[in-house]
Design goal:
Largest sheet: 6 strands, antiparallel
Order of helices and strands: EEEEHHEEEHHHEEEEHH
Distance between the termini: 51 Å
Radius of gyration: 19 Å
Number of strands: 11
Shape: globular
Number of helices: 7
Strand content: 15-25%
Strand order of the largest sheet: 1-2-3-4-6-5
């Protein structure tokens, strides 16, 4: 079992990691608020164990290197979270990322009519209440009868734009969820894709194309297993985007 120390204003060579935790991921990953130079950032701290590092070195890459490389490749793309730098030490790797207001998952929860009595985890209610205070009461995602609001349609277009930028450069995200779509701004909201840890860069040869088709088939099969109501809802949202674009 890995015991992770808690850092308070921990300094790397160029960055500063504050003790304010934003989110947690798998394998001991924690995202903190921090700074990189004079810029406020989100600091993604990845764990480096000796066994993991040895295995990755044999494969000719390090913890977070693939994710960082995808960010470098996608730097400057619209609707992709920016990565400003990467630093390594014995136990951790730090990625310094664009600091966003919240995730799409957070936004959906705080815009729910049942918030804060809905099913959000007790441990996260304080953070969600802060998001609600930042965004105010004027942010709405749905109109009457459950139709998407202009803001929701705009955020969906942002996501599609981000995916198009990745795909045009032969990058596949492979882990697109509401938690990995981040929202920037407080009044004019914008959606950006984040968490490139599972992303893949394809060379475009037959082996890569075949692999991509297998991945697409797996996602299609997963979609087919979703409840019918969710499938219909997704189709309606996409249709609205197309009609209004």
């Amino acid at each position: 079992m890995i015991i992770l120390p808690k850092f308070y204003n921990y300094c790397t060579r160029e960055g500063n990691v504050l003790d304010k935790e934003i989110a947690r991921g798998s394998n001991g990953t924690i995202i903190f608020e921090g700074s990189y130079g004079a810029r406020k950032v989100a600091v993604k701290r990845l764990v480096r164990t000796e066994a993991l590092v040895e295995r990755l070195i044999q494969a000719d890459f390090d913890v977070g290197s693939e994710e960082y490389n995808v960010h470098v490749e996608a730097d400057g793309f619209n609707n992709i979270v920016r990565c400003y730098g990467r630093e390594c030490e014995k136990s951790f790797v730090y990625l310094f990322l664009e600091l966003c207001t919240c995730s799409l998952d957070d936004l959906i929860r705080v815009c729910s009519p049942s918030f804060p009595q809905n099913d959000c985890p007790e441990s996260g209610k304080g953070r969600l209440m802060s998001v609600k205070c930042i965004l105010g009461d004027d942010v709405t995602l749905w109109k009457e009868k459950g139709y998407p609001s202009p803001l929701l349609l705009k955020l969906m277009r942002d996501v599609v734009c981000g995916l198009m930028n990745l795909h045009e450069n032969k990058i596949v995200h492979l882990n697109l969820t509401t938690r990995n779509i981040l929202i920037t701004g407080t009044t004019a909201l914008c959606a950006k894709l984040s968490d490139m840890a599972r992303s893949k860069k394809f060379r475009g040869d037959n082996s890569s194309t075949s692999h991509l088709l297998r991945l697409m088939r797996n996602y299609y099969n997963h979609y087919q297993e979703l409840p019918r109501e969710i499938q219909v809802c997704n189709i309606k949202l996409v249709s609205e985007c197309i009609k209004r674009d």
